[in-house]
Specification:
The chain is α/β, with parallel strands linked by helices. The chain has six helices and eight strands; from the N terminus they run βββααβαβββαααβ. The model has no long low-confidence stretch (mean pLDDT about 90).
């Protein structure tokens, strides 16, 4: 029912539920099997509810990319992100330090407290409306570094249907190796 993944980098135990209902439990190397079992049992109701929700979405299609294909996608993503940041920032007027395109496995983007914006190269494969949502989401973290009501109000100023886009993004089941 669960896939367990031991991780050198993980500091905490985490549970991810993917489209199709796949459950992955990421376990820090130092954690005992008993601690993991206790945690999973405590979270069983939450896991079951998320599995039920995610079973509605299609299973992931796995695609393997060559280094050249990956480099091309990263460049395409960088050009897109820069253009969209400039476009939306005409409204917000925030400043950032650095823009990076990464090969993240679990995130579409992130914003550091130093003002660095990171985006997953897979953004280049998304429909433009979903990619725009991700860009605005990270851009708005420069103004509100959390997911408070104020943050979502900022997002809604340029992406009024952000809830719909966020839900649609969840159903996009592409995974890269």
């Amino acid at each position: 029912m669960y896939t367990f993944k031991a991780s050198e980098r993980a500091k905490n135990l985490s549970i991810s539920v993917y489209p199709g209902g796949e459950v992955v439990v990421t376990v820090p190397k130092h954690m005992s099997a008993i601690q993991v079992d206790i945690f999973v049992q405590k979270k069983k109701a939450w896991i079951d509810s998320k599995v039920k929700l995610m079973e509605k979405y299609s299973k992931k299609e796995k695609i393997t990319l060559s280094k050249k294909e990956l480099a091309v996608l990263k460049q395409k993503a960088l050009l897109f992100v820069k253009e969209r940041l400039e476009y939306y920032n005409a409204f917000y007027s925030y400043s950032w330090r650095k823009i990076s395109i990464r090969s993240q496995k679990t995130r579409w983007g992130s914003c550091s407290k130093n003002g660095n914006l990171n985006f997953n190269y897979k953004i280049a494969l998304l429909p433009e409306n979903l990619a725009n949502y991700i860009v605005v989401h990270e851009l708005c973290h420069l103004g509100e570094f959390n997911h408070s009501e104020r943050f979502w109000t900022l997002v809604a100023q340029t992406i009024p249907d952000y809830k719909k886009r966020k839900k649609e993004l969840m159903s996009n089941g592409i995974v890269f190796q």
